[in-house]
Design goal:
Chains A, B: It comes from Cryptosporangium minutisporangium. The structure is a homodimer. By secondary structure, chain A is α/β, with parallel strands linked by helices. The first copy, chain A, contains 16 helices and 21 strands. In chain A, 59% of the residues are buried.
Chain lengths: 451, 451
């Protein structure tokens, strides 16, 4: 009933981190196998064809400073192109009023705008005090990690409008409410990206570019290149370490014996694997406290990007919800219109419990309010609730609550015997982004098989 | 290789909650099986003989208001007796000075004492605003859940001495640092116990009484009564729900088919079971964010309770650490001396990574500083790091970080199909205490098989 195989390295999880790690190891002559629980590779990048267009249901944007993912795309022959941004953005107020604006910050009234500008400035300044390699070690780490982002917003913003906009920004960036994030984690993420603008901007920021065929195409090409080294539908249940190596057991009882194991899944899912001997207390306890963000992404296709005719960019922010933000995700040619929308944080949780029909109606209503009735009758429609995907259980990334970085952060990246940790959450640059995943996969491969 | 069995109800986890639940179901004629991962029943109550005395390595105290555990003890023929409290308590300052004091609060200087008294008063007042059945539903729930206990302490206490003592109280009650706890959770715990004094006091509080033979004796008697219904060494890996029932699969492939399943393990461990169909997003995400507290309990035995001769009660608090607190746990007869010490929160994490010899030396040094050199040479010595126990992974209880109660708390107790949740964390009274476990086990049994 059970089967035994050998490899030099077993990589657990064929998200971008695992794929990059396995690919690099293979190129260095290492015998590697990549075990993936889902029936397809890609992890938090995922996609399919909708109306003949490759659409991303997961991560899809890249931007300046994300050197490793641009290099990977170039190597795989995938071209990047700019996200469509021409036209006015829109903001939906809590009362449901839809206002046009240019740039990244909508018209909120002068005092609220001052609030937001001050908050951005302070976050950037705080970010410079954090060492992304050791966020727990800074002189003000305990102070930053002792409070929620909510407490900081309430202290920093003097106006209700400013506070509401910062709440929205938190929801958009971290897929959670400001109460759930440690201020230190918020600041670390800014530092890991470079600046708050790097996180939030299209041009010059993390949403600047897209990839031909979608970001999931990168994952697919890597998986293709790895060929039979990738085993799909093979959830890992147990990792046993012994003197001469490690044994990785999948759900069907197959055993893989290897010299090293790279666990390239999210922290909470890494915590759900059985380890023998059990993991040290610090590592285990860390995986108990890093929940994934909550996001439902929807994709709607139209015969053309009709909003452009009305002078709109397709980018929207909504204080009313449930869509936190939308972006024009039409194909490069513009011969068809595609809008993507993100319900994040609290609205994503509210929607998760509804029926698919109710959720679809609610989200299309939200698009209609932002872009007019045409948005309510797409030719194609898809959505993905990442928190319901059995072997992902949330996105974009794990969120550090207060106290986690300073109490247990040192256990995040530290190998345990023959087990190495990868995944975007282990990266000190671009935590939570595709770039972070690529970097973490490269780093794990380098640790095991240096050039 | 795999075996199939049938039962009306499968209970997962033979801690106090699972034992009480299974026992009550059995008394009502329900065919029940109780699957326990560890080689013994008891969960977070655990004990053994040390120098011929039954000592508790886990939960051991009970007190007024904990009606169900007193009733259970009476039913099982186990007598309660008062914790020894005669004599002076001691406080070790951060500088290592050891001061005697009476009552619950040491001599901190008049302003610091005012701080502590004010904090106690405010916590009690806040507690009255929380409905323990629905902590997320109060009018000030979002405000309380948006901040850490750390932020509240810093705002409430005006003196460094007051703040340090409140930090110590947090470490003693929640086994974590104030940065890690939501203020709402802290207040909920107070409400679930009745008052802050109910949590902290010996006489009149949760540490008032002990049990002949130890609290783990209750668990053992229940397990004995359940007989072959308890299966030890049977970790549950998967729970599958289908139209006609549920199938529970253990690590060795044995399958138990039942009409109902009660999962009576801690929230993080409940999250590590595989569910088919996967759990709803809200329940799954909740289990990603409720880490267990960190505690190492040590037990040292002496020929006699020598500290009593010196006019000491054996109770100590230490601001220096690593022992947060100690208690006289000598047998009722007093014919032998037993001290128990608790390293909790940050000190417990520091100690977890050390060698057993180093840890023992460090903890005995700490006892010596508090009670004199005699304390450093016990006749017997034991310790347990609860975070290292594979199927417990922390104690006393799970800790809600900010945002968890208000965003996802409703998923804590809500059954999912045929699956019911038990364990002290699911109790609205005495959350985290043995009493909470007993109540949760009774409630789960009542939900499945009402009288």
């Amino acid at each position: 009933m059970s089967h035994h195989h050998d490899a030099d390295v077993v990589v657990v999880g064929a998200g971008m981190a695992g794929l990059v790690c396995a690919d690099r190891l293979r190129l260095r002559g290492v015998r590697v196998v990549l075990l993936e629980a889902e029936p397809q590779a890609g992890g938090r990048t995922a996609g399919l064809d909708l109306d003949g267009e490759a659409v991303d249901l997961g991560g899809q944007f890249i931007g300046p400073g994300q050197d490793r993912v641009y290099a990977l795309a170039a190597e795989l022959g995938v071209r990047a192109f700019p996200t469509h941004t021409a036209g006015a953005n829109v903001l939906e107020t809590e009362a449901g009023e839809v206002r046009r604006f240019r740039g990244m910050v909508p018209k909120l009234g002068p005092l609220a705008l001052l609030d937001v500008a001050r908050a951005q400035r302070r976050l950037d300044r705080l970010a410079r005090t954090v060492d992304p390699e050791r966020p727990w070690a800074g002189t003000n780490a305990a102070t930053l990690d002792g409070q929620t982002f909510r407490s900081w917003i309430d202290r920093t913003a003097k106006t209700a409008g400013g506070r509401r906009f910062l709440d929205l920004a938190c929801r958009a960036i971290w897929c959670c409410e400001p109460s759930e994030v440690s201020l230190l984690h918020a600041v670390f993420m800014v530092r890991a990206a470079g600046s708050i603008a790097a996180l939030t901007d299209f041009e010059g920021g993390a949403q600047q570019d897209r990839l031909d065929g979608g970001a999931h195409g990168l994952a697919q090409r890597l998986a293709d290149r790895l060929g039979t080294a990738v085993r799909l539908g093979a959830p890992v249940r147990r990792i046993t370490q012994h003197e001469s190596g490690a044994t990785v057991t999948t759900a069907d009882g197959t055993e893989w014996c290897a010299g090293h194991v790279v666990v390239a899944v999210t922290p909470p899912l890494a915590g759900r694997i059985e380890y023998d001997p059990p993991l040290p207390a610090d590592r285990d306890n860390l995986t108990q406290r890093l929940p994934m963000g909550s996001v439902i992404k929807c994709v709607a296709t139209y015969p053309e990007p009709f909003w452009r005719r009305a002078g709109l960019s397709g980018a929207a922010l909504s204080l009313r919800g449930p869509l936190t933000l939308t972006v024009d995700s039409s194909p490069r040619s513009g011969h068809r219109g595609i809008l993507i929308g993100f319900a994040t944080g609290s609205p994503a949780r509210d929607l998760a419990g509804r029926t698919p029909a109710d959720r679809r109606t609610t989200l299309l209503d939200a698009l209609s309010r932002l872009f007019g009735p045409e948005a309510g009758t797409p030719t194609g429609y898809l959505e993905r609730d990442w928190n319901s995907v059995a072997f992902t259980r949330g996105a974009y990334a794990a969120v550090f609550p207060p106290g986690a970085w300073t109490q247990l952060g040192a256990a995040l990246r530290k190998p345990v015997g023959r087990i190495h940790w990868a995944g975007s959450e282990t990266s000190s640059r671009w935590y939570g982004y595709i770039e972070g995943a690529v970097r973490s996969g490269e780093a794990a491969a380098d640790a095991i098989a240096p050039t």
